[in-house]
């Protein structure tokens, strides 16, 4: 009977350890931040009309290999964004841009890949440049 109790206790402990392992997602205390910058061109992309922070642009967050985004936020007046309360793991962030090669008839995603490796980490993806 004692061996059975010890075995069940070890089995329960092992289950709890694996059940508590967190994957990427919400609920943690790490953050991803960056900024979006706009390069404004004429319709043929031959003349640069201006460069400025991308105000009120959507930025999307994807967990690891998911096929759809988990969250989206808009940039502030300085073009900055931040996704908070994340667990360590692999993420992608992206914003949509016009395609200067005219290969895509719609907008294209400008993507940055990120890995959060520890709790309370703030990962700065730097600048995402989009074309208008």
Q: Topology of this protein?
A:
Blueprint: H1 2-19, E1 26-41, E2 48-53, E3 58-63, E4 71-74, E5 80-86, E6 89-97, E7 108-116, E8 122-131
Parallel strand pairs: 1-8
Antiparallel strand pairs: 1-2, 1-5, 3-4, 3-6, 6-7
Question: Which features does this protein show?
Answer:
four-stranded antiparallel beta sheet; 1 helix; elongated; 132 residues; Immunoglobulin-like; single chain; mainly beta; four-stranded mixed beta sheet
Structural write-up:
By secondary structure, the chain is mainly β. Strands 1, 2, 5 and 8 form a 4-stranded mixed beta sheet that branches. It has a 4-stranded antiparallel beta sheet with strand order 4-3-6-7, with no helix packed on it. It has a single domain, classed as Sandwich (Immunoglobulin-like). It is built from 1 helix and 8 strands; from the N terminus they run αββββββββ. A hairpin with a 7-residue loop joins strand 3 and strand 4.
The CATH topology annotation reads as Immunoglobulin-like
Number of strands: 8
SSE succession: HEEEEEEEE
How far from one another are the termini? 73 Å
Question: So how many helices?
Answer: 1
| CATH homologous group name | Immunoglobulins
**Largest sheet properties:** 4 strands, mixed
CATH architecture: Sandwich
What percentage of residues falls in helices of 4 or more residues? Answer: 10-25%
- Structural class call reads mainly beta
Proportion of residues in β-strands: over 45%
Average predicted local confidence, pLDDT: 88
Radius of gyration: 21 Å
Q: Tell me, what's the shape? A: elongated
Number of domains as seen in the coordinates: 1
Low-confidence stretches: 10-19
CATH class: Mainly Beta
